[in-house]
Specification:
- Helices cover 49% and strands 15% of the residues.
- By secondary structure, the chain is α+β, with helices and mostly antiparallel strands.
- It folds into six domains: 150 residues, Hypothetical protein af1432 (Orthogonal Bundle), CATH 1.10.3210.10; 154 residues, Beta Polymerase, domain 2 (2-Layer Sandwich), CATH 3.30.460.10; 90 residues, Ubiquitin-like (UB roll), CATH 3.10.20.30; 72 residues, no CATH class; 60 residues, no CATH class; 75 residues, ACT domain (Alpha-Beta Plaits, 2-Layer Sandwich).
- The strands form five sheets. Strands 1, 2, 3, 4, 5 and 6 form a six-stranded mixed β-sheet that branches. A five-stranded mixed β-sheet has the order 12-16-14-15-13.
- β18 and β19 form a beta hairpin.
- The longest helix has 35 residues.
């Protein structure tokens, strides 16, 4: 539906994103030195608007040092390289960042790209600036196995650096913002990779730190780079409707201005326009057309005090009818990133929805610049300081997760959960407010209080009544955690916790359970499985056991037993390798091929988790193999399945399988019929299948061309022979050209 809606939008392109940056560099190669001088003059003029004369001279001194250090280096556009750090510093200067941050921005590439060392910077500009530069420097000297791992390792380093000084991330965000503005000179593949990384990592970080303007520009630039045609069409549509909306916007704005002025309130009413990426996301997620998204008119009212915010709210509610359930007070309960505002939705003239945001000037600056506004209002002990504290608390949480995560990719996946919050606010019995993601449970709340509270949690009370630990919490509820010295996390908790902190601590506790208990449990499980194959662990020699352990990628038998106990390996797979190792010694020494272990028969009642792969839909009669997945247990594939072949580099997770002769039941499978495009085709196919009492799950058609149509069927069959009979009957239908087996989606 989205593709159809987007395809209907045509026209030219206009830029609706807010430019925060300073002196965006031209990609032309002519007269780069002149351009640089003009940018430096503008930069100096901007600095003098809020820094002291001494601070301005110090920042300029760092610029000339960077210019000399990067002498002879050029960007891909042909400009002197120093234009990049100058532009990065300019972005921060627009936010009125402190002079040390600006110096770090100007020097952020000298350690990596020149012969200057951290010690040199410390001697010239101070230890604090040198630490900032070191935290921001790119990590090009570290080798990574993949792009994803490189991204994860960079993010870990960033979290560590942020924990020491949060200004590091502000410089890093400005660096990425200028890089996004100058993507045009890179090849298409690199542009898409950088854009995706920006949308997945940097835009959410900017949002989490309350830097709304930076976040919006990241999203719009990333969207244009990832999907240029969609962006052009949406921008053209925005331009087209802007003229039609102009008179109505002015009329609503006049009514708001008049009503507020009549009460003696000095306010500023601003019409807001949705940015491209938010329009695109709403069209996709809510499956709405462009016209439905643009039917909402949005205004922001800027006032002089918190008291005036609530007075203005009462006036707009008396002017237009408020929509029930669409009011939010983020002044009394700010968002996690320090954002404060009153939000309401009204029904205006002709039933037109009007979104209103009411906030003070300080709140407006905080909404746009977030944590960066701390330096703009650093003398204020109010909202800006609270924002800084919240941001630092989040960074410390990142550091804790990084220390407990098993690897970099696990860490970054956990962090993504916290980067996209949809918050609820609950109370402790003492009245303290806790902010949690929507869908969070009492276990999430317990771990938010303290790790020990989460680990010893056994029950909870929600609004003074006993409730299940799995019950999702709602805003306004009071949550009390009941603990016990004997309480411990359960693997089942993974099914209903949503915060990365809770998942990380539960996983860490389960991994650190008493090793002796896990080893003994795994030993018993494996010995019991071997007994069914006519073998005992005691029958194996130390060398046979070690050989099997090596094949399974473990260092010692205890490691193997523990993985069996924790569910990382199925006992049946380990037993197969142990039996194979035992057979090696019993085989004929003159034989070049040792005895092989017979594959495991699939009966459907194995007693452990068994899943039939949807990618290939195996049926009784198909040659099959198995792969052990920690989430799905043993996954059965057809032998020729490409997904199974991709797992050949993990032999410890592969298992030989075959269908037991007694296997019964029905299995899903897909068929694609290519037939002449004519009326009544589906009815004819359905009638033919009903004649053999066949259960059809789903039937759809896809037009191939003017002459032929594809009919896709999902049905249940008992075996490969049963399927062959059905396909044979379908091929006899008049007008059917082909009948092929497909995957069931």
């Amino acid at each position: 539906m989205v593709a159809t809606t987007l395809g209907a939008i045509t026209g030219s392109i206009t830029d609706v994103s807010m430019r925060l940056g300073f002196g965006e560099q031209s990609t032309a190669t002519s007269a780069p030195a002149t351009t640089g001088k003009r940018s430096l003059a503008s930069f100096e003029a901007l600095l003098r608007t809020y820094l002291t004369d001494h601070q301005t001279k110090t920042v300029l001194r760092s610029y000339f040092f960077a210019e000399q250090a990067h002498y002879g280096q050029a960007r891909r556009s042909g400009e002197p390289y120093v234009t990049h750090p100058l532009a990065v510093a300019g972005i921060l200067a627009e936010m009125h960042m402190d002079h040390q941050s600006l110096m770090a921005a100007l020097l952020h590439d000298v350690i990596e790209d020149t012969g200057v060392t951290k010690e040199d910077l410390g001697a010239r500009f101070g230890v604090e600036v040198a630490e900032l530069v070191d935290g921001v420097s790119k990590l090009t000297h570290i080798e990574f196995d993949s792009v994803e791992l490189k991204q994860a390792e960079n993010f870990q380093k960033m979290a560590l650096a942020m924990a020491r000084d949060i200004r590091v991330i502000l410089v890093k965000l400005a660096d990425r913002l200028h890089n996004m503005r100058t993507l045009g000179v890179l090849n298409r593949e690199k542009v898409r990779r950088i854009a995706m990384e920006t949308l997945e990592i940097y835009a959410p970080i900017a949002m989490r730190l309350g830097m709304n303007s930076v976040r919006m520009e990241f999203e719009d630039l990333g969207f244009k780079a990832m999907h240029p045609m969609r962006a052009r069409r949406i921008e053209a549509a925005v331009r087209g409707v802007r003229g039609n909306r102009k008179s109505l916007v002015e009329q609503i704005k006049y009514q708001l201005d008049t009503a507020l002025e009549k009460e003696g309130l000095h306010v500023e009413v601003i019409g807001r326009e949705k940015h491209l990426y938010s329009i695109y996301q709403k069209m996709r997620s809510k499956r709405k057309s462009f016209s439905e998204i643009m039917d909402i008119f949005a205004f922001r009212i800027i006032v002089d005090s918190v008291d005036t915010c609530y007075r203005a709210l009462g006036l707009v509610h008396s002017l237009y009818k408020p929509v029930h359930g669409e009011f939010a007070d983020y002044i009394a309960i700010p968002k996690a990133n320090g954002y404060q505002s009153l939000h309401t939705v009204l029904k205006g003239m002709h039933g037109v929805p009007i979104e209103i945001q009411i906030r003070t000037r300080e709140m407006e600056d905080m909404a746009n610049n977030g944590i960066a506004a701390h330096w703009l209002y650093k003398s204020d002990e109010g909202s800006a300081s609270a924002s800084h504290a919240r941001a630092r608390e989040w960074v410390q949480g990142l550091l804790e997760m990084q220390q407990r995560a098993g690897n970099s990719l696990e860490f970054i996946e956990s962090v993504k959960v916290d980067l996209f919050p949809d918050e609820i606010y609950v109370f402790t019995p003492k009245g303290d407010i806790m902010e949690l993601p929507r869908g969070a449970t009492a276990i999430d709340a317990a771990y938010a209080i303290h790790t020990d509270v989460g680990n010893r949690c056994v029950a909870c009370r929600i609004n003074r009544r006993l409730a299940p630990l799995s019950e999702p919490l709602e805003s306004g509820q009071t949550v009390e955690i009941v603990t016990s010295p004997t309480g411990r996390p359960s693997p089942a908790w993974f099914n209903y916790v949503v915060t990365a902190r809770a998942r990380t601590h539960i996983r860490h506790f389960l991994k650190d359970q008493r090793r002796e208990d896990s080893v003994e449990l795994g030993r018993n499980l494996l010995d019991k499985t071997l007994m069914s194959l006519g073998l005992r662990l005691a029958d194996l020699t130390a060398s046979q056991l070690q050989r099997a352990v090596g094949r399974l990628g473990r260092l010692s038998p205890d490691d193997l037993f523990m993985d069996v106990a924790l569910g990382n390996l199925l006992p049946h797979i380990c037993a197969s390798h142990l039996l194979d190792a035992h057979s090696d010694q019993l085989s004929d020494p003159d034989s070049s091929k040792p005895l092989s272990v017979e594959s495991v028969a699939i009966r459907g009642t194995e007693g452990f988790a068994l899943t039939y792969a949807k990618c290939c839909c195996p049926l009784p009669g198909d040659p099959i193999g198995g792969y052990l997945s920690q989430e799905k247990g043993l996954v059965v594939h057809r032998e020729g399945c490409l997904n199974l072949r991709d797992k050949r580099d993990q032999p410890e997770r592969l298992m030989g399988l075959h269908w037991d002769d007694t296997m019964t039941g029905f299995f899903p499978v897909g068929l694609r019929i290519e037939a002449e495009n004519r009326r009544g085709l589906i009815a004819l196919v359905a009638t033919r299948l009903n004649a053999v009492e066949m259960n059809i799950d789903r039937i759809t058609t896809v037009e191939k061309d003017a002459m032929f149509t594809y009919v896709d069927i999902e049905l249940q069959v008992s075996s490969r022979i049963h399927l062959a009979r059905i396909m044979k009957r379908l091929r006899t239908l008049d007008g059917v050209r082909k009948v092929n087996r497909t995957s069931r989606r």
